[in-house]
Amino acid sequence: MPIRDRSRGGARRFLGRALSVITAGYALAALASLALAVVGVNGLFGLEPDPFASIFAMLLAMPWFLLIDFGPAAVPELAAFAMLVLGMAVNLGILLGLRRLMRRGRGVL
């Protein structure tokens, strides 16, 4: 079995592909957690309302959600949901930027 050359270009391509998979996984997890938050908090589809249904969305919006949210009574519910979406969008933008850097060959490796 031949050994493949793991040059710097190969490492960049590998990291670019890995970041693509991670970015796609993060985007899918973010959409699923937002859907779960909407369904759980509002009690849709016959479920009882659960205030902790948005915990997964909060975790995916870290650390930006912590910078804005000062407590449960500090912001209205719609503003907290908007902060969740904004935090996830910032994280997704960071991942897309890193992926773009790796694909163009300007990565840190």
What's the shape?
elongated
Largest sheet: none
- The fraction of residues assigned to DSSP E strands is under 5%
Amino- and carboxy-terminal Cα gap: 27 Å
Range of helix content:
55-70%
Backbone CA Rg: 19 Å
Mean of all residue-level pLDDT scores: 79
Order of helices and strands: HHHH
**What is the count of helical runs?**
4
By DSSP, the count of extended strands is 0
Poorly predicted runs are: none
Instruction: Please state the structural category.
Output: mainly alpha
Transmembrane segments: 21-45, 51-71, 78-98
Pfam family, one: DUF7942
Keywords: Membrane, Transmembrane, Transmembrane helix
Describe the 3D structure:
With 109 residues, the chain is mainly alpha-helical. It has a domain at 31-98. Helix content is 68%, strand content 0%. The protein contains 4 helices and no strands. The longest helix is centred in the first third of the chain and has 35 residues, at 8-42. The radius of gyration is 19 Å and the shape is elongated. Keywords: Membrane, Transmembrane, Transmembrane helix.
Topology at a glance:
Layout: H1 8-42, H2 55-60, H3 64-68, H4 77-104
Helix pairs in contact: 1-4
Give a summary of the structure in a few sentences.
The protein is mostly helical. The protein has helices at 8-42, 55-60, 64-68, 77-104.
Keywords:
109 residues; mainly alpha; 68% helix
